[in-house]
Amino acid sequence: MAPRVTAATTEPSSEGQSTPPIHRRINPELVPGLMVLVCAIVLIAASKLMNPGAGFTQELAAVLGTSIFLVVASFGQGLTILLGGIDLSIGVVIGIAAMMISVLTDGRDATLPWAVPVTLAVGAAIGVVNGVGIALAKVPPFIMTLASGITFYGAGLGFTSGLAQEPVAPALERLMNGHWFGVPIPIFLIIAFVIAATVFQNGTSVGRKLYAIGSSPGAARVLGLPIGGLTVLAYTLSGLCAAIAGLFLAGYSSAATLDMGGPLLLPTIAAVVIGGASVMGGRGIYLGTFAGALFLSALETIITVLSLSQGLRDIIEGAIIVGALLAQGERWNWFRR
């Protein structure tokens, strides 16, 4: 007679098996962004305590509304860091775009249909120059983007003599300072941009190729990926995003100066790094970058309330970047244990 098979012999015993730790059941790519997002919410709550007259939703809306410049510019910076590079010309491109849209519109809405494309094209063209220099001339990204930033800043300074330009087209001002159904319009713009950026970086073949190049340029070359073309594309998109941020910043401020993008350069790097991306390339998701941008915007709100100097702000942001870099290795090792 064949032995009777019991449930105990057909079902695996739970004895000797351990349930994976919770951190092993979470996608490691998401964890840094979630942690930073929690910290951002804590900072927003803290800013609410410093301003008792405002509710939490009002503080959240205010932080989200002012984070749009960093949210947009950080996406382009994130693409260059994904390749193991960096774009140090972002601040200059933001300032140039803000100045251009102000000069070209001269306070008239009728000029926007052609002034906006021209301004965006100039930002993208600066990105192309960076990408070609890095991909074809083999100039290190740090040197190439720094040199181009200095060069184009000098050109902008020559054209404008460093003077502030105003006014901006009223329609652009209404876009950045208006409300839809009681919600600031920039929040709707952020939602649309975050969705589009996430889909591009993490849901398209181009995005996957960028990850492959950043993870192993040698392997990507063996696979026949167009490394040069994708590098130019990444830096072009970085210039384009910086130009978009410049347009938004000019509309929000109702005026433009060539230096207004400078304070955003370091935060774009910080947002990407604290969001979980590796400065060596090949790792990180845009949702983490978005969380980093939101965190830095909330931190900026608190710094403004405390009336801290710009030098101290730079020290804080620099310390955040260094801390994130030091924590990356140990953090990733812990989640993979």
Identify low-pLDDT runs.
1-16, 332-336
The major sheet is characterized as: 2 strands, antiparallel
CATH topology: ABC transporter involved in vitamin B12 uptake, BtuC
Q: Averaging pLDDT over every residue, what do you get?
A: 83
Q: What overall form do the CA principal axes indicate?
A: globular
- Beta-strand percent range: under 5%
Order of helices and strands: HHHHHHHHEEHHHHHHH
Number of separate structural domains: 1
Number of helical elements? 15
How many β strands by DSSP? Answer: 2
Strand order of the largest sheet: 1-2
| Fraction of residues in H or I helices | over 70%
What structural category do the secondary elements indicate?
Answer: mainly alpha
CATH class: Mainly Alpha
Distance between the termini: 48 Å
Label the CATH architecture: Orthogonal Bundle
Structure description:
The protein is mainly α. It has one domain (27-47, 54-328): ABC transporter involved in vitamin B12 uptake, BtuC (Orthogonal Bundle). Helices cover 71% and strands 1% of the residues. The protein has a two-stranded antiparallel sheet with strand order 1-2. Strand 1 (179-180) and strand 2 form a beta hairpin. Helix 6 packs antiparallel against helix 12 and helix 8 (170-177) crosses helix 12 (227-253). The longest helix has 27 residues, at 227-253. The protein is globular. The N and C termini lie far apart (48 Å).
Q: Summary?
A:
With 337 residues, this protein is mainly alpha-helical.
Characteristic terms for this protein:
337 residues; mainly alpha; ABC transporter involved in vitamin B12 uptake, BtuC; two-stranded antiparallel ribbon; 1% strand; disordered N terminus; disordered C terminus
